[in-house]
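[stage:ingest] chain + small molecule (thymidine-5'-triphosphate)
[stage:ingest] validated
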Amino acid sequence: MMERRIIHIDMDAFYAQVEQNDNPKLRGKPVIVGGRSFSRGVVSTASYEARKYGVHSAMAMSRAHQLCPDGIFLRARFNRYREVSSQIMDIFLSYTEIVEPLSLDEAYLDITHLVSKTRPAKSIALQIQHDIFEKTGLTSSSGISYNKYLAKLASGMNKPSGTTVIDYDNVDEILMHLDIGDFPGVGKVTKEKMHRLKIFNGQDLYDKDENFLIFHFGKRGRSLYEKARGIGTNQLDYDRERKSVGKETTFSYDRNDDEEMVRVLKDLSEQVSVRLEDKKLCGRVVTVKIRHDDFTVHTKQTGTSNPIFRTEDIYEVAHHLYYELKDPTIPIRLIGVTVSDLEKRSYRNMTIYDFLK
Ligand code: TTP
Ligand code: MG
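[stage:predict] done
[stage:export] tokens:
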């Protein structure tokens, strides 16, 4: 079986960066975003400028005020963060449907099927980070590895704006020197217990046998034993009931022929329509994606006034988008059609034609 390539992407100082991006006056300044009331609340996150003063997530707001009296203290605007989050998730889904979001600002992506000799996982990660920056103006960090936990570990290693690969050639070096508190899943309490057991880093953990760890940490002992060896799951828990239905075609050699593209678009529209029909869904947004032979990806989408699901309706929009998107000078390697913003079909969004079939 082919080795999995998993990317973990995590936005840098997410809430604070959104605030700085939305209000340029805040850029370069110590920004601290907190929950509810300033007197009793805790810090949600702090910009990297504020972190220099020792301010961090989950700290009492009053403490943050003491450490950073000149900081700019803001209330969290969750709706805005959700909005940005959904833009980011859309970018992930434009690469692969195997996306497991962990929170508003981070997700695992399985990109195994996109990797080739000329397109290593790292270049895909960089491309995704670039897309996020283009679309939202925000920086993120990514980690690439052969399982989830190592990918997550990697994404935190070179923040902000980092892209880090953990592979068989460097995994031992990284894990053996890793502070025990930096192992994913080792919180404050576990860390203190580890210290009592004279386990301070990955090497110390590696040196303990499995039974010892199970004796002291119960069921988690086994997982800790495995983590010390770089072993972890590579199965993503992703949403099979997707928020979009899409089909794409990759050409074995590059095409640049409108007539053929129109045929392919019609065919893809029909396949999408059949899927929507199966699931009794319809959608309000159509997206066409084109990948050129140099692997640049271009997408264009548009909303429809009514939810659609029939081949002709999807094709009509897709065809229009294709002509807006295409660059006649660059051959096409892949083309795709997606319908999103889905909802269940109801009598409200059916037309007379649906009753004539
Ligand atoms: P994180 O990804 O943990 O932190 P971050 O994005 O602010 O900073 P970085 O990843 O660069 O270290 O969390 C994402 C968001 O979740 C964060 O911006 C605010 C929110 N959050 C809280 O509200 N409380 C918390 O205790 C944590 C850790 C995060
Ligand atoms: Mg983050």
